[in-house]
Amino acid sequence: MKGKRRDFIKQGVATAAGLSIGQLPSMDHVRRSRELDYVKDGGMQLCLAYFWGIEPLKVELARQMGVLGAVGGISPGMVGMQGKNNYELEVIKAVKEAWEKEGLQLRVIEGPPSLYTKTKLGLEGRDEEIDNFITFLKNIGSLGIDTVCHNWMPVISWTRTNMEKSSRGGALVSAFNVKDIENEPVITEYGDLTHEKMWDNMEYFLKAVIPEAEKAGVKLALHPDDPPIDGIRGIPRIMTSVDAFKKMLDLYPSPSNGITFCQGSFASMGDENNGVDIPAAIEYFGKRGAIHFVHFRDVRGSKNSFEETFHDDGKTDMYRAMEAYYKIGYKGPMRPDHVPTMAGDSNNHPGYSTIGTLFAIGYIRGLIEGVHKAST
Predict the structure, then answer these.
(1) Tell me, what DSSP letter sits at residue 271?
(2) How many domains does the chain have?
(3) How wide is the angle at C-alpha 35 spanned by C-alphas 34 and 40, nearest 5°?
(4) Is 236 a member of any domain?
(5) Which residue of 66, 212, 285, 294 could cross-link 290, Cys pair, CB 3.0 to 4.6 Å?
(6) Confidence band (pLDDT; 50, 70, 90) for 12?
(7) What whole-number distance in Å separates Cα of residue 78 and Cα of residue 71?
(8) What digits encode the pLDDT tens for the residues 312-362?
(9) What is the domain range of residue 215?
């Protein structure tokens, strides 16, 4: 065994020697590295989020770390196709190829096209939105992109009340406190909205879309409401608990209907005396085959008042969480999420610090290796 390991190390050194400093690896080398990384990462597909297009420094660091999955949206402007619809085949194909030229693979579409307020609130025009969304699913499926992270947060999406709260060592994190929004005006322009209507709209959407997703070979991964409170400014929120996700899956049971298991969102559900057991939730949804995408992050606090943390400084037993993914045999995409902004980095995009992301990937890889070695 040791001899084989020495031979493997020698082979790796020889490969590294064949690459000049600063030289972009060939696609063959990238593919070989990707295959090795998937073995090394317990079969999981480690990714980074790119919501602002191709960020050269982040992409270069990703290649150096061997984190070759990209998560992002479809931006026509990114590929010089301004004016085109972001669900059109030629736009999606151009975006996919742009990532491949960087040595990365577009694995998850997060923030998908044509899934907007009309669909989520059941307004006039939702059928057109849904038809365009189905076109999008067919197009990504034809290109081999098989995972879509979506949410059910109309009008007001991901929300925080502080984007620069001081954390460990002066790093900056985002935070939420429901008291800070108590006096904000109620939004009334969409009429009388109820949780029941939101569920009806969800069921209508799933019944229209999931059969088409199955045909296209695409998995939908629903993200929890963040923060997971009952409503903001009169807009109801329904994806706020483990039971809500069980209900959603039961509305249309299918391998194409699943979850983005955002650990930070699930960890912030409930209150101080009744929180979510993250490893148990992973095990439950994993056994149902419902976890299609993972946001690996953590928080301190509960739904009404919480803050983001470093991956090693929150409320969740992150080792047990990773152990749960390993035990259910999760092999899908996983990315770090909402990392602190560390010294020397910009807080222009809170939660997506490049330096914080490096720390997160190292921590995640360490957990994977530790869990793997403990199980063998």
Answers:
(1) B
(2) 1
(3) 90
(4) yes
(5) 285
(6) very low
(7) 14
(8) 999 999 999 999 999 999 999 999 999 999 999 999 999 999 999 999 999
(9) 26-375
